[in-house]
C-alpha cells in the first residue's frame, strides 16, 4: 500500500530521514518507535505530504504521490491523520468537526453527513458529546473526536502521530482502545507511539528509528524479546526503567 | 452670544452641514465617511492580510510592498496623493468625499492587513495542518477553519483601528471636506467669542463616538468569549 524508495529529507543541514526503504502492506498495522528526534514523526508526515521529501519517492496504491500531477488534496482525503495535539477545530462542535470535510469534499448532504458523524461518534463512545466543543471535552475525548473526524472521510489508511503523548495517563487507554478496534477491522494503520504495550498487542510490525535511519524492523515479539541493534536495546531498557541513570 | 444661543443657531449646521438646502456635512458626513471607510477597509484589509501570508510569491511581494509603503507614510500624505495625484492619473476630478474615502480605505486597509496577518499567524499551526490533512484546499482551510477563529482573536485590535478611523476623518478638513471638524471651525469663525466651548463640544462628540464603539466592541467580545471556542494561543509541538 505504501512504498518508500530511498527517501531522504533534510531540515537545513540536519539529515532527518536517511535512505528510507520500507513497504507497508494493505491491512498492516505498523508501529514506529524510537527516541525523540529520531525522525519518526517526520516519516509519517511525509506520507500525506505535510512534510516534503528531497529525494527518493513514496508510492501509495501504486501512485507516486510527489509527482506534479498528483493532487495533494485528493491524496489527503484518502489518508486519515491524527495529531498529538488533537487539533480539533475549537469553533465547531464535535459533530461539526466530523461533518465539515465530508460535506465540503465528498458532497454529502448535511443530513447524510450528520448521520454518518453520529455513527462515528457512537463508535468512539462520544455520541452524547456531539454538541460539545473542544474546550468542554477532556484530552482523551478530544482525541477520540479527532479520530472520528478523520474516519469521516472514509480513508483506507490512517496515520497516528503520537496520539496519546499529550494525554493524562488515565486517558491513554480509551484512545488506544479505539485505535485497537480499527486494527481489528482490518484498516491499514501507521502509529507513531511510545506505548509499548499497545505495540506488543496490536502491531503486525515494529519499526525502530534513530537519527533518521530505520535501524530495526521486526515483529513485536522479536523486537521486544530479542532486539538486534544496540540502539534498540538501549532504547528499550531506557523506557523500561526511565528513572535509572546509567 | 451664549452657548445655548449658539447651539440654537448653529446646532443643525453642526449636525447636518447645509443639508437639506445644500450638500450634507457636519457630524452626519463624518459618520457616513467613517462607516463607509470601515465597511470598505475591512474586506480590503482582509484580502491584503491574506496576501501578506500567501504562499504565492507573485501575490505576497507586491502586497507586502504596498502595506509597507502605506504604513510608512502619514495619512496626510495619502490624502494629498488621493487629492492631487489620483485625478492626474485618472483624468477625472474625484469629489472631496470620495477622495477622502479612498485615502482612508487604503490607509486603514494597510493597518488592518497587519492585524489580520498577526491574527492568522497567532493560531496554532496544527489548525491549518488538521484542516489540510482532511483534504481541504488552502483557501477552504482559511475560510472554514482559520478565519472564523482568527477574527475573534483580532476583534480588540480591529476595534482599535476602527476608532482610529473615526478620528482620522477629521483630516478631511485639509481638503475642505465639510465634515464635523471643518464645520466646527467655520462656526468658530462666525461666532468668534466661544472657541473653548465649540472645540470642547467637538472633542466630546468624537469621544462619544469612539467610546461608544469601544463599548459595543467590548460587549461583543464578552458575548463571543462566553462561547469561547477558539484554540488556546500556545505553541503546539
Describe the structure.
The complex is a heterodimer of chains A (about 250) and B (about 240). Chain A has nine helices and ten strands. Chain A is an alpha/beta fold. In chain A, helix 3 runs parallel beside helix 5. Chain A is globular and about 55 Å long. The mean pLDDT of chain A is about 95. Chain B has a single domain, classed as MetI-like (MetI-like fold), CATH 1.10.3720.10. Helices cover about 75% and strands about 0% of the residues of chain B. The chains are: A alpha/beta (about 250), B mainly alpha (about 240). The interface between A and B is medium-sized, with 31 and 25 residues.
Give the ordered list of helices and strands of chain A: EEEHEEHEHHHEHEHEEHH
Write down the overall geometry of chain B: elongated
CATH architecture term of chain B: Orthogonal Bundle
What is the structural class of chain B? mainly alpha
CATH class type of chain B: Mainly Alpha
Compute the separation of the termini of chain B in Å: 71 Å
Provide keyphrases for this structure.
heterodimer, A: alpha/beta, 4-stranded antiparallel beta sheet, 9 helices, 10 strands, B: 237 residues, MetI-like fold
List the helices and strands and how they pair.
The complex is a heterodimer of chains A (246) and B (237).
Chain A: E1 2-11, E2 14-24, E3 29-33, H1 40-47, E4 55-60, E5 63-64, H2 72-77, E6 79-82, H3 94-105, H4 110-123, H5 139-151, E7 157-161, H6 169-184, E8 188-192, H7 196-202, E9 205-210, E10 213-218, H8 220-225, H9 230-240
Parallel strand pairs in A: 3-8, 3-9, 6-7, 7-8
Antiparallel strand pairs in A: 1-2, 1-4, 4-5, 9-10
Chain B: H1 3-16, H2 26-52, H3 57-71, H4 75-90, H5 96-121, H6 125-133, H7 138-168, H8 180-191, H9 195-226
Helix pairs in contact in B: 1-2, 1-8, 2-3, 2-5, 2-8, 3-5, 4-5, 5-7, 6-7, 7-9, 8-9
Give the structure's gist in a few sentences.
The complex is a heterodimer of chains A (246) and B (237). Chain A has nine helices and ten strands.
